Amino acid sequence: MNKVGIIGWPVSHSISPVMHNAAFEALGLHDWRYELAPVPPDIVRQSLRMLRDEGDFVGVNVTVPLKEAVMPFVRADERARAIGAVNTIDFRDGSGTNTDVIGLIDDLQAHSVMLAGIRAVVLGAGGAARAAVYGLTKAGAQVIVVNRTPKRAQVMLADLTLAAGIQNAEVRTLDEAAEMQPSLIINCTSVGMWPKVDESPWVEGIPFPTSAVLYDMVYRPARTKLMQQVEAGGGQAIGGLGMLVRQGAAAFRLWTGRDAPIEVMFAAARQALGGQA
Ligand SMILES: NC(=O)c1ccc[n+]([C@@H]2O[C@H](COP(=O)([O-])OP(=O)(O)OC[C@H]3O[C@@H](n4cnc5c(N)ncnc54)[C@H](OP(=O)(O)O)[C@@H]3O)[C@@H](O)[C@H]2O)c1
After folding, report:
1. For residues 20 and 29, what is the distance between their CA atoms, to the nearest angstrom?
2. What is the pLDDT of residue 178?
3. How far apart are CA 171 and CA 154, in angstroms?
4. Are residues 182 and 147 in the same domain?
5. Quick check: pTM over 0.70?
6. Residue 67 among the catalytic residues
7. Strand partners, 1
């Protein structure tokens, strides 16, 4: 049996097992199985070794709060080092990568959102924002970061510049960013996420740029307050489920060497979220 899974603390809410097991089933990969593996933050090193040596795991996904904590124990690639977080480990060669970037960029491409030469606004400065700024600037976009705590955004850009030579990004206030007429705005904050579904990271009184497409990384609920605001103004809004599915598909490809059945994974994810996505 080839075992893969997800480590985090807690992990019981994860829909990754449902997505991956549906994909294994669809491709007839009956000797593959995806399992939940709860790992407390204080025993990360021992747990990784146990999963590899005694649990016979091929690899694992990594979720909150362990994405940074696993870094010293894997051979992190350039992308993961730049972002400062690993979300996929392959025990066969000890490597660690970050497929959130692939998930986001693939999903933007799937929605025909051009990135080269555009101006994009990233809302947030946490792990998801780091992945977005890295992916967008690598794809040739100019990035403006807006965060509730501007200092955290400055530190994020300084880190990304040092680790990956990123230059085409700056920190602004929300009204400054809105006036710069971006063509893409990505919500990388947790604002609007279930259960606080009535909240939006967009400050009232600042018009949402009419020319901008919104990508909301939040996928629970499927249509966030911010998405509803943008759509009410006649704009296009894309939810974050596609990013979740496509980051999983990238890990699937890495472990199995097979292209993931994306539509099967989408259907399984939607069903697992029970109408919330
Ligand atoms: N679709 C996907 O596949 C995918 C992948 C990764 C993450 N996500 C989603 O992306 C979101 C962020 O994840 P993360 O890991 O980056 O989280 P994080 O590291 O905790 O960062 C949270 C960010 O949200 C901001 N924020 C939180 N509460 C706020 C508020 N009330 N008003 C304004 N800003 C607020 C924080 O600002 P401060 O710096 O000021 O605290 C920070 O920038 C989550 O909803 C997560 O589910 C989705």
Report:
1. 11
2. 97
3. 7
4. yes
5. yes
6. yes
7. none
